[in-house]
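Note to self: keep these together.
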Amino acid sequence: VEVKLPDADDKRLVEIGKAHFPKLKVQLLQRVAEHMGQTVPAPGATAATTTMPSPAEYLDTLRACDTLKITPESPDWKNVVQMTLWKHGRSAPKEEEEEDGDAAAE
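Structure:
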């Protein structure tokens, strides 16, 4: 039996994060949820198939942030998100300077 649960929004992810990591600051829980919501969908994904990160992916990311002392503002953030989201072909959002650099190269 498979039950499809609705995607968790940022608010729900933060609630889940509080339950699993009560010692982490709420601001970190919120920033991680917001940044994970900006992930790039897998190639060929449509609006109908693009989903928010799962609670498990969010918790994996929080655990990595806590263990490695990383925040969404850290230089290694993109690597953490890529590792926690790779299973579904998603990736971290492009950094602004990368996008600007790509546009300048064209």
